[in-house]
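Exercise: predict the fold of this chain.
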Amino acid sequence: MAELRALLADLGYADVRTLLQSGNAVLTAQRTAPADVARAIETALAATYGRDIKVMVRTAAEMRAVVEANPLAVNHPSRFLVTFHADPVDTAALAGIDTEAQKPDEMAVRGREIYFDLPRGIADAKLPLLVERALRVSGTARNWNTVTKLLALAEGH
């Protein structure tokens, strides 16, 4: 994570902080669109590590909205995922998934995020894999504990 913090600081971002060994960082980017920040970081990661690494960027306000928009109960934060996508989720592509057959696992789509309640655990859950196959694009998933810690870090708590 020290390497990631250094890379981000070298790109000119301020207040760079990382969350444990999660690959997540919080930073300040003055008057720069989130998509531009993502592209700049992806370019730097590719130059440094020689491979493409997809980056998802959310502002503190967007992270607050992700938390507030959650329509599902969070009974076990470590078994509750939010999958972040670069673009709005194509809900039509998900129409063929029989979510009833996946109970008690549940999901809900809100904009660029998909919320998953996986009470039997993440390792045994099939629903996120079905969604990824149906969308044909991958996102990046974080459990609820990580999402709320990132929000607190972004808001300076």
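Check your answer against the key: The mean pLDDT is 94.
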